[in-house]
Amino acid sequence: QVQLVESGGGLVQPGGSLRLSCAASGSISSIDVVAWYRQAPGKERELVAANTRGGSINYADSVKGRFTISTDVLMESVSLQMNSLKPEDTAVYYCSAEGWHAFEKFHAWGQGTQVTVPS
User: Fold this and answer.
1) Is the separation of the CB atoms in 25 and 2 below 8 Å?
2) What are phi and psi of 84, to 5 degrees?
3) Are strands 113-116 and 10-11 parallel, antiparallel or unpaired?
């Protein structure tokens, strides 16, 4: 079983910065995709940033130039550096990882961490 544990959320003033971290544990053969999603109250969960083993990185238009996703070589540790935060960035942020565990494909989620940027 693969588990993801997140840390780093909190309250930050507009224009401030936060860094979210996520660590994967368990019997992992390989991780192919890591990503950060967020869900604001009353809205659907949306992709914020994703990084593939092949090196492809994608960002939501709303965070381009402000957020940066980074991983270690094995992609078992992933971070999201968030700068120039805005009230509309307020949401619960979830770490996601897809890969292989003992010849079976998995898609794991973190427990979520709250980010609040007051207006």
Assistant:
1) yes
2) 50, 50
3) parallel
Q: What tokens does 91 get? A: 């949401």
- Residue 73's alpha-carbon distances to 50, 51, 95, 109, in angstroms, are 15, 12, 17, 20
| Residues near 41 by beta carbon (within 8 Å), at least 6 away in sequence | none
Given this model, what pLDDT does residue 55 score? 87
Indicate left, alpha or beta for 8 from its phi (over 0: left) and psi (-120 to 50: alpha): left
> What is the spatial distance between Cα 44 and Cα 32, in angstroms, rounded to a whole number?
24
Q: What is the DSSP letter of 32?
A: E
The residue assigned the tokens 């079983």 is 1
Q: For 29-68, b where at least 16 C-beta lie within 10 A, e where not — what string? A: eebebbbbbbeeeeeeeeebbbbbeeeeeebeeebeeebe
For the stretch 37-70, pLDDT in tens is 999 999 999 999 999 998 899 999 999 999 999 9
